[in-house]
Amino acid sequence: MGGRAVAITALAGVASGLLFLSMIQGGGLLPVAGYFVQLPILLCGLGLGPLSGALASAGALGTVLLASGIVAGMVLLVVQLAPAVLVTHRALLWRGEGERVEWYPLGRLAADTALYVGAVSLAALAWLETTGAGVEGLARFLAAHLAAQLGGPGAGPALEAWLAPWLVWLPGIVALSWLAMIWTNAALAQGLLARSGHARRPSPALATLVLPSWVVPVTLGALVAGRLLGGAPAFAANLVLLLGGALLFLAGLAVLHALVAARRLGRAPLLVLYVLLVLFSWPLVLVVAALGLAEELVGLRRRLA
């Protein structure tokens, strides 16, 4: 790397570390900082290459270790840096020669990140169970954290009561939020780099997304297991179900993008779709995920073409 790239990499590492420190120490950037810790790393990795991304990650880790210790450093490594490095490595894989270059498929990249989040989340769930804290302990922690940020210590019991009906879904919701954060940062980084002309790979079209063949059977198996089992196995099954559902949601979006492109309808229908997703959230998300399931089972895009 040249001197300019080294400087950018170093600044990105420090920026990522400071964003993380702002989040865990309750600074003024708290609502924003935690969500965009990965962004400087991904900008380096997808723009300057995997080595830059890895070095920026090392800089962020060093910043946090010096300022906050090993526990905070391990959380940063597992939650933020490792998935960013994974995305960078996978996204820049390619094969072919000349103008016939085939980049790592978008569907496999999305599935790889879901597998990482699922593996770490299931390991964390198992650890909670072995320590005796369980998901109830996670609920108490989240309630206390939210109470400290929003309503003061007295709001903790009320928040715990509010979380109680969602307890069986809580680990999956946490994992799903984490996965959404990874995907959002990756898409934002690639979009910014593509617009500025510094992206190392072309931005993949969502309409071309194809999921690995294991997604549907694993998701449906988790659906059945979650209804039949109780306790920790039900928590684990619902966690897998939500992550698989997120992948099917992407497949549903791919169908809609392909339909709009095939009919040459422009960007307006997609803009309306994403506004409706923000406004109506879960009901429409479930519809899009069901569309993705239909795509995986019967190949809707082939029929709509």
What is the end-to-end distance? Answer: 45 Å
Assembly type of the chains comes to: single chain
Q: What pattern of helices and strands is seen along the backbone? A: HHHHHEEHHHHHHHHH
Radius of gyration: 20 Å
Strand proportion, as a percent range, falls in under 5%
Q: What structural class results from the helix and strand content?
A: mainly alpha
> Which blocks of ≥5 consecutive residues have pLDDT under 50?
none
Q: Tell how many strands the DSSP assignment holds.
A: 2
If helices are DSSP runs of H or I spanning 4 or more residues, what is the number of helices?
14
Strand order of the largest sheet: 1-2
Q: What's the pLDDT, averaged over the residues?
A: 88
Helix content percent band: over 70%
The largest pleated sheet is described as: 2 strands, antiparallel
- Overall geometry comes to globular
Provide a brief overview of the structure.
By secondary structure, this protein is mostly helical. The chain has helices spanning 3-24, 30-33, 39-48, 50-68, 70-91, 106-131, 134-151, 156-163, 170-196, 215-228, 231-263, 268-280, 282-298, 300-304, and strands at residues 94-97, 100-103. The chain is 78% helix and 3% strand.
Provide the fold topology.
Blueprint (H helix, E strand, L loop, with lengths): L2 H22 L5 H4 L5 H10 L1 H19 L1 H22 L2 E4 L2 E4 L2 H26 L2 H18 L4 H8 L6 H27 L18 H14 L2 H33 L4 H13 L1 H17 L1 H5 L1
Antiparallel strand pairs: 1-2
